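hey so i finaly got around to running the thing on Acetyl-coenzyme A carboxylase carboxyl transferase subunit alpha from Flavilitoribacter nigricans. pasting the sequence first so u can double check i didnt mess up the copy paste, my clipboard has been acting weird all day
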Amino acid sequence: MVFLDFEKPLEKLYEQLEKLKQVGEEGIVDVSETVKELENKIKNTRKEIYSNLTGWQKVQLSRHPERPYTLYYIREMSRKFVELHGDRCFKDDKAIVGGLANLDGQTVMIIGHQKGVNTKMRQYRNFGMANPEGYRKALRLMKMAERFDIPVACLIDTPGAYPGIEAEERGQAEAIARNLLEMAQLKVPIVCVVIGEGASGGAIGIGLGDRVYMMENTWYSVISPESCSSILWHSWDYKEQAAEALKLTPDHMLEFGLIDDIIKEPLGGAHTAPEEMAKLLKRQIKKAISELQEMSVEDRIEARINKYAVMGVYGTAEEDSLMTEKENQ
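ok and heres what it spat out for the C-alpha cells, dont ask me to read them lol
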C-alpha cells in the first residue's frame, strides 16, 4: 500500500497489524482479539483522517498512484468496449482514449484522459496531457455519437493540456475552443465526471456537459496549486495555501453552481475499493443519461447553454467604479 503524508498514522497501524498477523501465523500466541482491536482502531483512525480533508490533501488523493484511471473504469463498467483511434488529421493521441461501450444494454460513447499505470505507460500516455489531436479525436467521436444518437460520457483526469511548442503550433487553444462550441450544441446527452485532476483548459476541453459531476476526492481549477504558488509567491512551498485560496474541491464547486453533484468515494479514496467505485460511477452515469433522454433535443441544448450562461458573478458599473477608486487610493 502507498501512504500519503497525512496518512502516516495509518501506515504505522498497518505495520503493527502485519507484525501481529505474522505472530499469529507462527502459532506461538493467540492474537485474534488484538488483531480485531487493531483493525477497529485502523477503521476509526481512517474515519477521523478522512472526515475533514483540506484542499491540498484532496489534490494529493486525486494524484494517488493507485487511483483508477479511465480505462479501468471502462473495463469495469462495460460489457464490451470498442476503442476508436485518431483524429483523421494528424495522429492518434494516447493521452485521450475513447470508444463505444455497452453499459448494461445502453450504448455510450465514453471519452476520457488516460495517465498510465507505470512509468513507461505514463510516458506513452504523456501523463494524461493531451495535444490538439487528442481534443480533435474527442470531438470526432462526439460527432459520430451524435450521428447515431448515442449519449456521450466524458471522464476527466488531467494536469492540463500539453503546453509544448508543438502543441501550440498545431492549434491547442483552437482545438479546445472548438470542442466547447461543438459540445454546447451537441444533440445527444453529455455527462462529464471529474475522476481525478481537473486542471485548466485541459479539463474543460472535454468538460462541457448537461450534467457535470466530481468524485469526492478530486479537484477542478483553472490552475494547479503548485503553479498558483509559483506565480504568487515565486515558490512551490505555498501550495497548501494556494489550494485553499483556489477553492477547488467538489464542495466548493457545488456551492458555486459549477457542478451538479458529488459522487461519494469509498472511505480512504477510490483506490481502496476500485470495483465499488466503478459501480457507483456507472450508476450515476446511467441515471443521468436516463433523465436527459426524457428531454427533447431542443430543450436539452437550451438548458445546457443556460446552465453555462448563468455561471459567474457580474458587477454593476457602480461597483466597478468603487473598486477602481479603492485600488487608486
